[in-house]
Amino acid sequence: MSLEYKGTNQFTGLDYRFWQVVDALTDKDEKYENLFGTSGKLYAVFALNNTSSNSAVAIKFYDGGTATNGTDIPSLTFGIAQNAKEVFIFPEGITFSNGLSMCLSKYATGHGTAAGADLDATFEKIVLIFK
Amino acid sequence: MAVGNVTLRAPLGTAVWSDTAATNALVDVNGSATSIYHVEIDNTANTAVTYVKMFDSAASGVTLATTEPDIVVSCAAGAKEYMTIPTGLTTSAALCYIATSTLSNAATQVAPTTAIGLTISYS
Q1: Which residue from B102, B104, B100 is spatially nearest to B114, judged by alpha carbons?
Q2: pLDDT value at residue A2
Q3: What is the pTM assigned to this prediction?
Q4: Which residue of chain B comes nearest to A45, CA vs CA?
Q5: DSSP letters of A36-105?
Q6: A45, A46, A93, B89: which could join A88 in a potential S-S bond, CB 3.0 to 4.6 Å?
Q7: CATH architecture of A3-130
Q8: Which one-letter DSSP state was computed for residue A13?
Q9: What residues contact residue B3 under an 8 Å CB cut-off, 6+ apart?
Q10: Which residues, 6 or more positions from B109, have their beta carbon under 8 angstroms from its beta carbon?
Q11: What is the DSSP string of A18-31?
Q12: Contact, A98 vs A40, CB < 8 A?
């Protein structure tokens, strides 16, 4: 699986990223390191796991410029149910002092520090608002 | 003038759990499937990051260092943190939590220097 930068900064001073899965890979070992290239705060996550063949997905965010799924410990993590959309808003922002990295796993086996199994299908879209 | 009346999905839950001194002991919130709509963490009394770890289980079913947390939210030193989930974040069995300064899933979860405030709106 890979993510593609789709948007641009819409607001002065706000670093806005729209990421979308653009291929069919579902490898749990895919990782997205230092997405914004800087430290900062995460203000919102919009996650769409609407592919009906995809089971619940664990989203894991790491406070670091690198991430190893199954080894590193996420400082922010939660699950997205099968065939669901979820919105998470953090008005004060979750601090990532060393950069923001992200991994996805099948939830049943891959939440917390576990690497888990590959996803059943692509995770459709994820939007992160970070400053 | 047109009028309308829309039934809203309960966006803030039906109950508010409040813990004024959450620390490194597991606490049960709800004994059945739970939808979490809002979480507030008050870590202003501490000079280190505190992690609130939530489990889709009763406390009696959690073995630290073995049971992986289902939800982890970090709160920076000296800060308050809020997490709002309008669509609800659902657990399937129950909900319990622990507050700790230990990021890893170790058997010993170190207590925050000062116990934190924690509020969870859920149904």
Answers
A1: B100
A2: 54
A3: 0.87
A4: B85
A5: TSS-EEEEEEEEEE--TT---EEEEEEESS---TTTS--SEEEEE-TTEEEEEEEEEEEEETT-EEEEEE
A6: A45
A7: Sandwich (2.60)
A8: T
A9: none
A10: B24, B53, B64, B98, B100, B102
A11: EEEE-S----TT-E
A12: no
| Model confidence pLDDT, tens digit, residues A32-65 | 889 888 899 999 998 888 887 888 999 999 999 9
Give the amino acid at A75.
Answer: S
What's the ipTM? 0.83
Q: Closest by alpha carbon to B123, among B42, B6, B11?
A: B11
Strands (E), B47-112: 50-55, 71-75, 80-91, 95-100
- Closest-CA distance of chain A to residue B48, Å: 12
Pick A81's closest partner by Cβ from B76, B79, B90: B90
Tell me the chain A residues in contact with residue B81 when contact means C-beta distances shorter than 8 Å.
Answer: 90, 92, 94
Q: What is the pLDDT of residues B88-122, one digit of tens each?
A: 999 999 999 999 999 999 999 999 999 999 999 99
Identify the contact set of chain A against chain B, taking CB-CB distances under 8 A: 63, 73-79, 81, 84-92, 94-95, 111-114
Q: B19-122 maps to which CATH number?
A: 2.60.120
Of A76, A89, A112, the CB nearest to B73: A76
